[in-house]
Design goal:
By secondary structure, the protein is α/β, with parallel strands linked by helices. The chain folds into five domains: about 100 residues, PriA, 3(prime) DNA-binding domain (GIY-YIG endonuclease, 3-Layer(aba) Sandwich); about 70 residues, no CATH class; about 170 residues, Rossmann fold (3-Layer(aba) Sandwich); about 190 residues, P-loop containing nucleotide triphosphate hydrolases (Rossmann fold, 3-Layer(aba) Sandwich), CATH 3.40.50.300; about 90 residues, Alpha-Beta Plaits (2-Layer Sandwich). A hairpin with a 2-residue loop joins strand 31 and strand 32. Helix 5 packs across helix 7 and helix 8 packs parallel to helix 9. The two termini are about 55 Å apart. About 0% of the residues have low confidence. The chain binds adenosine-5'-diphosphate and zinc ion. Zinc ion binds next to loops.
Length: about 725
């Protein structure tokens, strides 16, 4: 009779279940500890999820854990439960879900000691240097010399800068006892020591702060206030309360670009607190360090993007999701989770408050307010006497357009610049022109691998596809008829040239993905914009989100129509959010502002509702529309996507999946499709989709659980790429 204990281990592999292993000899690893296990023909790092008495795998096929990597659990029971829930909810392999919660170095089996790994010189090393023993090993000598001159040692990055092949040399130094590795705590970066003068909360802020501070147990709040109304100030106050109670606060932001500004503000407010950032821009060691600080409680404030929602919080107090409506909280590939939704679940699990902040809440969150699940707190007034901007619609049919600009907008820019104002021009399209068209035959240049046009990039003299990244030189003439090619439409690059020609002498900063590829460039350009040095700010979505530009007095929206006629049922919501975010820039800090919107459809009801009555009325109308049409939040969706080198296999697979779904029983479930994706061909692959809709979330969840396992074993499933997206944000 065997009393072997079986470990259920999560391994980063696309398999829907955990893997069973025999416990190693000696102390049995506990749930949350990492183990090294034999896997197929190699070894893998896994996380123990459970210790059980028996396995469905026959005893002779069970393999034994090779070693235990952590002296104690890295992930606590609550976090393991959260991950298990997320794996079930999003129908995603538990091993990949666990992987999303761990910094890369821990996934790779790094021992996870806190501190940064550095190499330092030993006394024997000093002696060797003085004796000139390393004359015949120049790389070793150079490294050791640098270690001798360093303050406590150098990390891998510094060593790499000294010698590209530093590792073998360092190994040799270590072997000879001349250098050794150790872990150092990088310590808090000191931050600006000057404590901020605290503004007195406005009555609305005071009410919001009191409500959040005074709540007990799980309570979601929707903090709704226009940009500049003082939401961040509310977060800061509530976080201060948590600091005093020695509780950790987790602040989720949609983009890395937003973290430096926010971090600086948090450091000013809490000069003595442990504050860490967690985002994809960090190096692996920095990320591990920040994660460890959160896990052992040294960090009491954690600011991060999406994946930070899984950070360990031994003393949790408060979760904030800033700009909760933002689409980047939803991961769009692999493990397709919504960090906002998981944040709410986590707050529920931990029994605490979660604050979702936005000037333009998602319709989901507004419906939750309506249903009484979330409590809404409003910050109606702008602080510091700032006034709301006046809005002008410029009819593109009635005005001549030069390089995308109408005369009324040009005049307005001129006026504001002369009045020492700052001007923000928004166009969510990078490149010079979205289309290069033949004047002879009228054909436009298409990507060879996508159903999409190539975008002209002037300075690089290249055409590039924004969907697959393909790029080629601009041809001299049309390949079909030899006619002349003509750039049609505007991108930010073209607009930049036009604005520089029209307003020479006014510094302009353009912020889009093309101008910010180099490291640190986003920060540098945002700083140029925020400081007022640049007088004309031009950019895409990157510029529109959450940044504070106090001197902007005029906002120009070049093309409102991009959003009006999207194929997606969320297109209107996104347009309204962008509009409010962008228009919200004008007229802060006491200066009156103006907004000019260029459109072909000035009488469009959506634009009219938005402009005349604001986001709330728009949202009310949009929710009524969603209710009538049975779209989310009044129904729940999942999308099965497939892609293959040709159309038929993708559609066949989805057809079989549909039949399998029908066999699972579809009471309360609607299956829509299969159908080709709106942009069918992308990067040479044909994409198709099958939409699942249910009136009830529980029913959808039960259906998906049963259905997914049927889909996974379809013979066609092995031949194509497929994925299941629960609560999809984009329907293509
Ligand atoms: P939001 O997060 O809603 O955009 P912020 O909290 O960043 O708003 O506030 C906008 C500006 O107003 C900031 O410069 C902030 O310091 C200032 N501010 C916020 N609350 C107050 C207040 N009660 N009194 C004076 N200034 C305030
Ligand atoms: Zn392409």
């Amino acid at each position: 009779m065997s009393t072997e204990r079986i470990l259920r281990v999560a391994i980063d592999a696309p398999v829907m279940d955990a893997f069973d292993y025999l416990a190693p000899q000696g102390p049995c690893p506990q749930p949350g500890q990492r183990v090294l296990v034999p896997f197929r023909r190699g070894q893998r790092v896994g996380v123990v999820l459970e210790v059980v008495g028996e396995s469905a795998v026959p005893g002779e096929r069970l393999r034994r854990v090779l070693s235990t990597l952590d002296p104690e659990p890295l992930l606590d029971d609550k976090l393991l439960l959260l991950l298990a829930w997320a794996a079930g909810y999003y129908q995603h392999p538990p091993g990949e879900v666990c992987a999303a919660a761990l910094p890369r170095l821990l996934r790779q089996g790094h021992h996870g000691a806190t501190g940064t790994l550095v190499w330092a010189i030993t006394p024997a090393g000093h002696a060797a240097l003085q004796a000139g023993e390393l004359a015949r090993a120049p790389v070793q000598a150079r490294l050791l010399d640098a270690l001798a001159g360093s303050d406590g040692g150098l990390d891998a990055t510094a060593l790499l800068a000294l010698a590209s092949r530093w590792r073998p040399a360092m190994r040799e130094l270590e072997r000879r006892g001349l250098a050794q590795r150790r872990h150092v705590d990088l310590g808090e970066s000191a931050g600006a020591a000057m404590p901020e003068a605290l503004p007195t909360p406005t009555p609305a802020q005071a009410e919001a702060i009191a409500a959040i501070d005074g709540s007990s147990g799980f309570q979601p709040f929707l903090l709704q206030g226009v940009t500049g109304s003082g939401k961040t100030e509310v977060y800061l106050r509530c976080i201060a309360t948590m600091q005093a109670a020695r509780r950790q606060s987790l602040v989720l932001v949609p983009e890395i670009g937003l973290t430096p500004q926010l971090l600086a503000r948090f450091r000013r407010r809490f000069p003595d607190a442990g504050i860490v950032c967690l985002h994809s821009g960090l190096g692996d060691l920095q990320r591990l360090e920040a994660w460890q600080r959160a896990r052992d409680g040294r960090a009491s404030i954690i600011i991060g993007t999406r994946s930070a929602v899984f950070v360990p919080l031994p003393q949790p107090g408060l979760i904030v999701v800033d700009e909760e409506h933002d689409g980047s909280f939803k991961q769009q590939d692999g493990f397709r989770y919504s960090a906002r939704d998981i944040a709410v679940w986590r707050a529920h699990q931990l029994g605490m408050a979660v604050v979702l902040g936005s000037a333009t809440p998602s319709l989901e969150s507004l419906a939750n307010v309506e249903a009484g699940r979330y409590r809404r707190l409003r910050l109606p007034e702008r602080t510091a006497g700032a006034r709301h901007p006046g809005v002008q619609l410029v009819d593109l049919r009635r005005h001549l357009v030069h390089d995308g600009l109408t005369q009324p907008l040009i005049d307005a820019i001129d006026r504001h610049l002369q009045d020492a104002g700052q001007v923000l021009i928004y166009l969510n399209r990078r490149g010079y022109a979205p289309t290069l068209m033949c004047t002879g035959c009228g054909q436009s240049l298409e990507c060879r691998r996508c159903d999409a046009r190539m975008v002209l990039h002037w300075r690089e003299a290249r055409l590039s596809c924004h969907h697959c990244g393909a790029s080629r030189a601009v041809p001299e003439r049309c390949a079909t008829c030899g006619g002349e090619l003509h750039a049609v439409g505007q991108g930010t690059e073209r607009l930049e040239a036009a604005l520089m020609r029209l307003f020479p002498g006014y510094p302009l900063v353009r912020i889009d993905r093309d101008t910010t590829r180099a490291r640190g460039e986003v920060e540098r350009r945002l700083e140029e914009a925020a400081s007022g040095r640049a007088r004309i700010l031009l950019g895409t979505q990157m510029l529109a989100k959450g940044h504070d530009f106090p001197d902007v007095t005029l906002v120009g929206i070049i093309d409102a129509d991009q959003g009006l006629f999207g194929t997606d049922f969320r297109a209107g919501e996104r347009l309204a959010q962008t509009f409010v975010q962008v228009a919200g820039r004008a007229g802060r800090a006491g200066k009156p502002g103006e907004v000019y919107i260029q459109t072909l459809f000035p009488e469009h009801p959506l634009l009219q509702a938005l402009i005349r009555e604001g986001y709330d009325s728009f949202a009310e109308a949009a929710l009524a529309e969603r209710r009538a049409a049975g779209w989310p939040p009044f129904s729940h969706l999942a999308m099965l996507r497939a892609e293959a080198p040709s159309r038929a296999p993708a559609l066949d697979f989805l057809g079989q999946a549909r039949a399998a779904g029908e066999a699972c029983g579809t009471a309360g479930i609607r299956l829509l499709g299969p159908a080709p994706a709106p942009m069918e061909r992308r990067a040479g692959r044909y994409r198709a989709q099958l939409l699942v809709e249910a009136g009830n979330r529980g029913r959808l969840q039960r259906f998906l659980a049963a259905w997914r396992s049927e889909v996974a074993v379809l013979p066609a499933a092995a031949r194509i790429r497929w994925s299941l997206d629960v609560d999809p944000l984009e329907l293509f």
